[in-house]
């Protein structure tokens, strides 16, 4: 495959509309946002979860709980030698009493999500766990599917989907990076 | 870290630092001398309605995680510690304080737990409170409004759904009054097909399952108040071999016409020596009970089989003609010494 190494797929405007739409879908499926907790998967899931919480509060007047998980310890595919950096997991609500929506930027093999579910269950047993992702790029290696999807972007394995966020990267956009030519 | 208060209903006020969820926890203040098994303890449904003080000075030093869950959630609403650890370890990848917070448990450290334990030993178990939001006077007032554990049947609040464990061997039906997971695992490991039914299941329904043996689980609250299950046990007595642990032991005693009384400050820990009356051997056992069976005036055919070497209280019963026996202590340990694990096999041998 030839072509430009980095292609913008979603610009800042589309990006914001997509996040708002996911928030609407969450509200549609959860009559009581007070019983919901959004849990961002580090790194880029965390600001995304925070934005969803803001939207849901604006739409309903009710602010769902917000948390984060760091799954470095739980990955089953960490290559030997590279010690995972342990970050912070923060779940400041009763995990066993909330419907939890995991939030991540890109859904790919599903291993990150499996690890995040493992992490959640070390803290407690939530009655419901759902998954919201900004991009589903396919190539699943585990039986995991998202409940809320921003964009379905079919990709090849030698491409990479790069989500950039204003909070971390200075601006909102989604890029497709061709790793063969990049 | 914000200041938190620990109080008892008779006016003892101690200060500590909040290390988990914010809020106010009320209940019966008890203490355990166990040095390990903190996560098993707070997820043991027998601690429902109790605030747990750890007498050991350092708690939480080997992490927390899914593998140490004795049930689906933490049951004790509040925990009092001298020092709390919060790092990952062999017990799991989660910090103990982080885990408590995620479970909604109010927990404090830097409390003078020796003073609190001595207070409870001198004056007996009593209601208490832990709060990150109330001052001592208001907290004591709330504690005094809180219902006492005495006379309360808490089994309907903790019993799980109907479920089956194990595939081979004799069929055992367990009446779940707040059953620890490791007790169920102990029975299955001894070789049976275990069907667990919630407290409140009638004797007819249980016998309709055609069991080879019946098990009575541990659980919270005042054993004298668990009258529906005691009535069921009375109907089941003699129909099948029967084995009870902890609350199950106390319910069997009531069904046999004995009574229970409150212990001054309970038995909670992993080093309680118990003498077997038949061969005078001693088992070091794990215990968690605030009430004990009164052993005077035994009906015909009922024997005391185990006695506490700490205070002489009844720790085991048998009614051989009715094929029923029970122990007050915890043969499943989790955590603690495995001296008494043979009891699961003894029971399965009687039903096989």
Describe the structure.
The complex is a heterodimer of chains A (182) and B (352). Chain A is an alpha/beta fold. Chain A has a single domain, classed as Rossmann fold (3-Layer(aba) Sandwich), CATH 3.40.50.2020. Chain A has four helices and eight strands. A five-stranded parallel β-sheet of chain A has the order 3-2-4-5-6. Chain A has a three-stranded antiparallel β-sheet with strand order 1-8-7. In chain A, β4, α3 and β5 form a beta-alpha-beta unit. The longest helix of chain A has 18 residues. Chain A is globular. Chain A starts with 5 loop residues before the first strand and ends with a strand. About 3% of the residues of chain A have low confidence. Chain B is an alpha/beta fold. Chain B folds into two domains: 143 residues, Glucose Oxidase, domain 1 (3-Layer(bba) Sandwich), CATH 3.50.30.20; 197 residues, Rossmann fold, CATH 3.40.50.880. A ten-stranded mixed β-sheet of chain B has the order 10-12-11-13-14-19-18-17-15-16, with helices on both faces. In chain B, strands 1-2-8-6-4-3-9 form a seven-stranded mixed barrel. In chain B, strands 5-7 form a two-stranded parallel sheet. Chain B is globular. Chains A and B meet through α3 of A and α2 of B.
């Amino acid at each position: 495959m030839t072509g430009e190494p980095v292609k913008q797929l979603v610009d800042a405007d589309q990006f914001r509309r997509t996040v708002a739409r996911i928030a609407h879908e969450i509200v549609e499926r959860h009559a009581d946002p007070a019983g919901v907790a959004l849990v961002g998967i580090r790194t880029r899931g965390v600001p995304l979860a925070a934005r969803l919480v803001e939207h849901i509060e604006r739409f309903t007047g009710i602010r769902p709980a917000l948390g984060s998980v760091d799954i470095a310890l739980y990955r089953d595919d960490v290559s030997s030698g590279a010690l995972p950096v342990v970050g912070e997991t923060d779940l400041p609500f009763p995990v066993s009493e909330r419907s939890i929506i995991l939030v991540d930027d890109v859904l790919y093999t599903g291993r990150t999500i499996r690890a995040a579910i493992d992490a959640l269950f070390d803290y407690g047993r939530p009655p419901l766990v759902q998954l919201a992702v900004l991009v589903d790029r396919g190539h699943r290696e585990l039986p995991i599917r998202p409940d809320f999807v921003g964009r379905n972007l079919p990709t090849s394995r030698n491409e990479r989907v790069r989500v950039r966020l204003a909070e971390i990267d200075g601006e909102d956009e989604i890029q497709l990076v061709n790793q063969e030519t990049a | 870290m914000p200041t938190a208060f620990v109080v008892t209903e008779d006016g003892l006020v101690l200060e500590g630092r909040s290390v988990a969820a914010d809020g106010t926890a009320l209940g019966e203040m008890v203490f355990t001398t166990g040095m390990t098994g903190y996560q098993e303890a707070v997820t043991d449904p027998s601690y429902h309605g109790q605030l747990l003080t750890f007498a050991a000075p350092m708690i939480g030093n080997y992490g927390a995680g899914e593998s140490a869950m004795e049930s689906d959630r933490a049951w004790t609403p509040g925990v009092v510690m001298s020092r709390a650890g919060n790092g990952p370890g062999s017990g799991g990848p989660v910090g103990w304080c982080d885990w408590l917070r995620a479970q909604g448990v109010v927990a404090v450290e830097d409390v003078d737990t020796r003073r609190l334990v001595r207070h409870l030993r001198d004056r007996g178990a009593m209601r208490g409170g832990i709060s990150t939001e109330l001052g001592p006077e208001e907290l004591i007032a709330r504690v005094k409004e809180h219902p006492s554990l005495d006379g309360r049947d808490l089994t309907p609040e903790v019993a799980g759904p109907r479920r089956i464990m194990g595939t081979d061997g004799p069929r055992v039906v367990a009446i779940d009054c707040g059953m620890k997971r490791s007790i169920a695992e102990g029975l299955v490991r001894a070789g049976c097909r275990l069907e667990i039914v919630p407290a409140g299941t009638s004797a007819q329904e249980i016998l309709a399952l055609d069991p080879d043996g019946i098990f009575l689980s541990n659980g919270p609250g005042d054993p004298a108040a668990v009258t529906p299950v005691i009535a069921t046990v009375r109907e089941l007595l003699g129909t099948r071999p029967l084995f009870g642990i902890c609350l199950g032991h106390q319910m069997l005693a009531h069904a046999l016409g004995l009574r229970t009384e409150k212990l001054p400050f309970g038995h909670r820990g992993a080093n309680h020596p118990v003498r077997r009356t038949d061969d005078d051997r001693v088992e070091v056992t794990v215990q968690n009970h605030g009430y004990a069976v009164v052993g005077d005036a035994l009906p015909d055919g009922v024997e005391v089989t185990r006695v506490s070497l700490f205070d002489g209280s009844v720790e085991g019963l048998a009614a051989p003609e009715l094929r029923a026996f029970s122990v007050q202590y915890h043969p499943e340990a989790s955590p603690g010494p495995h001296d008494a694990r043979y009891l699961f096999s003894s029971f399965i041998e009687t039903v096989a």
